[in-house]
Amino acid sequence: xxxxxxxxxxxxxxxxxxxxxxxxxxxxxxxxxxxxxxxxxxxxxxxxxxxxxxxxxxxxxxxxxxxxxxxxxxxxxxxxxxxxxxxxxxxxxxxxxxxxxxxxxxxxxxxxxxxxxxxxxxxxxxxxxxxxxxxxxxxxxxxxxxxxxxxxxxxxxxxxxxxxxxxxxxxxxxxxxxxxxxxxxxxxxxxxxxxxxxxxxxxxxxxxxxxxxxxxxxxxxxxxxxxxxxxxxxxxxxxxxxxxxxxxxxxxxxxxxxxxxxxxxxxxxxxxxxxxxxxxxxxxxxxxxxxxxxxxxxxxxxxxxxxxxxxxxxxxxxxxxxxxxxxxxxxxxxxxxxxxxxxxxxxxxxxxxxxxxxxxxxxxxxxxxxxxxx
Length: 374
Known about the structure:
alpha+beta; Alpha-Beta Plaits; 9-stranded antiparallel sheet; 4-stranded antiparallel sheet; 13 helices; 15 strands; 33% helix
């Protein structure tokens, strides 16, 4: 099997996607759940990129259910699952489901008894490469605070006590990086092991609960963390999934600096902008002279955030730091970027505007914490 060691995560490999949703129902809620599922599947069937889905019930425990769905690729699924439409579509399920777990897989190989293997199909079967990961899962949350409260929120978020990093024998919170851009907060986490277990572990820690309560009065979107439905909706809307992670194959430099860059996309262009940055960072990973050692691209709707680990100062090579090396790449970004939203309008092929974009996109670091033995 062909492997690629540098790209451990990508929504842009072109493979079909299999989504598996495990559900644990409350006793006596089966009929309510079935009614909610009928509503949901009728909605999902019309979503572009959706191929099929199946509803399964455990033969051992009737309270355990499974919904599997197949999608043409990851981008249309991510566009739907991160939308307000999805939030409203799944809301009827909240009262009948005790717990859920979502897993997403790229389909790399497929065997069908009705399709004999031919040289052509065998060649097509090897087009999607397997990725070799580093055992780390990456995720981010983003939300906005009320204008005028930015400095107070930054003070609260910078001053909290770190929660216990070790979740269990196999899972550990490795790193938390927190940035702000205006009144937007982005919190990126790296987890060794089970991401969901780590997120739930962190949410239960008193240090984290205290800081979450402290920033509640400043949030633009109201939430009540004591209300499971309110908390679920808030964190669903705040999710900023990692859609691509790449790291250079060269030895890790001794001193890397982490930066976050904010790229607000024009309406409907978020996924395309994220794909552009992902491909640019793949090229940078192959360049031994690139200051960018590794990057993670996060995207939701028209919000794109690029987390980069690089050598030297961010402004030493603005073009490389922004991910714009190569012919016509600045023009491509200009076509997708909402320049007015970030305060940089006009051609990005001028040195002045490139420098302005780097200055305006650079997010303010609030805290960057690693576990002691990460």
